[in-house]
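User: Can you recover a sequence for this backbone? Please restate the input before giving your answer.

Assistant: Of course. Working from this structure:
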């Protein structure tokens, strides 16, 4: 790469770009560029700083790891810093890495291990006397986010280690979303929630940093461990021995670990691992090559950012060539029309692909995608199929330009453009109705068991459902006329619908499909306003006073409650007997004994955290997620972690569950 005319300006521009992409990757779990493109930016900046040492700054992204800790979580300082790995994309650079280590070894024999590079979120667990006391993300390498309560919900992470572990040890690994769970999760997300996760790493990052541990638990995360930080007491002598210790203590380790002794066997092992990686339960984006001797690891040390004794080899994304047979349209629950590529089925990255999203009309025009084209398919993050390239040289002249339809393919209503999206404005559009009802009945909303996609389609097709409110008018005789609907199934469905009338207000707010409102913001709105009537009369400044509500969401909420159609829906649901908040808690608490108090909950209680939080709120108190100087009480159950330590440091009263029961009556 040629030297830029103004190295200082280019370095400044590169730092800005890298910080932007770091923020998207680590904090928003929504990367815009591939790892390869990001590494190219970082490498260009490294080369500039090497050629012009005066351009290197102490806070340069070439000297830092990951991103800053999030404000929503308590900071957790690692006992031993968590570094990242240098990346390589070529076998030749892999050979150069081995040659560098042989030079440092000065004739001593070397052994290497090669293990899968799991596409997840780096995590550090602190165990004291075998008990899990803290879990922290990588953060900036020195300090991460305390996500202990969320990590406790992950089923394959032990709360207590087996055998005789060290008195204190930091265990390092990755939290990931199993491939099967990832596929299910993305089918539940639609255009009014965050867009589908690009890959399992983003999904895991978004899941582990939920403010509500119940949401994390529902995501069915898993973990794998491969290293350590601080370690008190005798240590193994090799990386192999370290992994064996982790496994004996009950911690999951990588499924496949290969060995090598020289550069060619390292390259061969990496290629071999690449051939079987699609069989793993987790997604992998490469292989990690490590020096096996722990003594040599310590001797060879690290740079400011990465260890010298390890490197990550990134595999080329797999691509496949196929024909684009047609472009069809999907209609979302808010009417957004999304073009979808219908492909001649092709095998890529471990599975057969027959469809791929094309996002919007502008994406099709930008890539000049035409029906009948030969296209290259790649799985973004090796999971979501994407059309990455058109083989224009293969065109025969029979290919057809695609044009967005003038009318909705579901209801024939004229569509209009809203930004980059085309939308159907017919609120009774069957496709929209289906999606709205599915969302309303989902587990994260009104949780109506049995009312899933297949049955919703049947009910809409039979004209038994035309809106959310119609759910509460269903009767047994018409249900029994449906295919595969028996007496017991109909009775169970009607019972589940009746039960949903008493669901708490936050579930209703989430189920209504208010733009940009998800589970967390629905809980915050319910906690702040208590009833639909209070929320309905709130203006934008009032909404903005809530911590989790921003400008866009506030405007969307206010506009939603101004719509005559939405007000008519609320009236129908109120007539059907749904809880509009009045049944969540008394209009006036029985007493105000906890008024002015701010509580944080930690550890395992005999009742759910939701129950304990409800008790505190009914008595006038507030519940927050992290300990601060404003916290007045910490309710601590069994196996309380870092929140307990922080509360003690700040002099905040620690309340046991027995004391809480007495205090709350």
């Amino acid at each position: 790469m040629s030297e830029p005319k103004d190295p200082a300006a280019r370095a400044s521009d590169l730092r800005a770009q890298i910080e932007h992409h770091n923020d998207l990757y680590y904090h928003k779990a929504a990367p815009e560029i591939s790892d390869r493109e990001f590494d190219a930016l970082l490498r260009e900046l490294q080369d500039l700083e090497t050629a012009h040492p005066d351009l290197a700054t102490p806070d340069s992204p070439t000297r830092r790891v990951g991103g800053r800790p999030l404000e929503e979580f308590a900071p957790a300082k690692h006992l031993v810093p968590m570094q990242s790995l240098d990346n390589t994309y070529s076998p030749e650079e892999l050979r150069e890495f081995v040659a560098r280590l042989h030079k440092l070894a000065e004739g001593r024999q070397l052994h290497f291990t090669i293990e899968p590079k799991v596409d997840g979120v780096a995590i550090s667990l602190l165990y004291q006397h075998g008990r899990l006391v803290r879990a922290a993300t990588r953060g900036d390498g020195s300090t991460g986010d305390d996500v202990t309560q969320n990590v406790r919900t992950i089923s394959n992470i032990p709360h207590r280690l087996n055998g005789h572990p060290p008195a204190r040890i930091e265990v390092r690994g990755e939290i990931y979303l199993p491939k099967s769970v990832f596929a299910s999760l993305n089918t539940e997300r639609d255009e009014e929630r965050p867009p589908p996760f690009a890959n399992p790493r983003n999904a895991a990052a978004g899941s582990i940093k939920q403010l509500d541990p119940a949401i994390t638990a529902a995501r069915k995360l898993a973990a794998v461990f491969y290293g350590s930080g601080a370690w008190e007491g005798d240590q193994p002598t090799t990386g192999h021995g370290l992994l064996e210790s982790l496994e004996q203590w009950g911690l999951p380790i990588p499924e496949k670990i290969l060995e090598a002794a020289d550069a060619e066997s390292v390259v061969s092992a990496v290629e071999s691992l690449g051939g079987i990686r699609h069989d793993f339960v987790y997604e992998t984006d490469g292989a990690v090559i490590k020096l096996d001797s722990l003594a040599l690891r310590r001797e060879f040390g690290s740079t400011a950012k990465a260890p010298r004794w390890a490197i990550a080899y990134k595999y080329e994304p797999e691509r496949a060539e196929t024909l684009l047979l047609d472009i069809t349209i999907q209609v979302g629950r808010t009417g957004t029309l999304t073009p979808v590529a219908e492909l001649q089925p092709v095998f890529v990255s471990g599975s057969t692909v027959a469809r791929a999203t094309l996002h919007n009309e502008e994406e099709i025009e930008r890539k000049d995608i035409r029906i009948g084209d030969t296209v290259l398919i790649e799985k973004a993050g090796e999971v979501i199929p994407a059309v990455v390239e058109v083989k224009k040289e293969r065109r025969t002249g029979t290919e057809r330009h695609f044009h967005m339809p003038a009318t909705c393919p579901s209801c024939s209503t004229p569509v209009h453009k809203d930004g980059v999206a085309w939308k159907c404005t017919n609120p009774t559009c069957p496709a929209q109705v289906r999606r709205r009802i599915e969302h309303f009945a989902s587990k994260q909303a009104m949780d109506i068991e049995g009312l899933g996609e297949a049955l919703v389609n049947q009910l809409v097709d039979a004209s038994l459902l035309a809106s959310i409110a119609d759910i509460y008018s269903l009767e047994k005789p018409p249900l029994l006329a449906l295919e595969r609907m028996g007496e017991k199934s109909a009775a169970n469905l009607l019972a589940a619908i009746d039960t949903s009338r008493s669901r708490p207000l936050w579930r209703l707010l989430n189920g209504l499909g208010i733009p940009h409102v998800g589970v967390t913001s629905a809980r915050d709105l319910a906690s702040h306003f208590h009833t639909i009537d209070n929320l309905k009369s709130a203006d934008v400044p009032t909404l903005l006073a809530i911590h989790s509500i921003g400008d866009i969401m506030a405007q969307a909420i206010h506009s939603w409650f101004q719509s005559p159609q939405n007000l008519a829906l609320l009236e129908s649901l109120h007539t059907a007997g749904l809880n509009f908040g009045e049944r969540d808690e008394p209009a006036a608490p029985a007493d105000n004994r906890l008024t002015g108090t701010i509580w944080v909950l930690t550890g395992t209680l005999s009742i759910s955290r939701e129950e304990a939080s409800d008790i505190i709120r009914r008595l006038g108190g507030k519940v927050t997620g992290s300990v601060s100087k404003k916290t007045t009480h910490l309710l601590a159950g069994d196996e309380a972690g870092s929140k307990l330590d922080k509360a003690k440091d700040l002099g905040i009263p620690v309340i046991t569950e027995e004391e809480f029961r007495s205090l709350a009556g």
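That completes the design. The radius of gyration is 28 Å.
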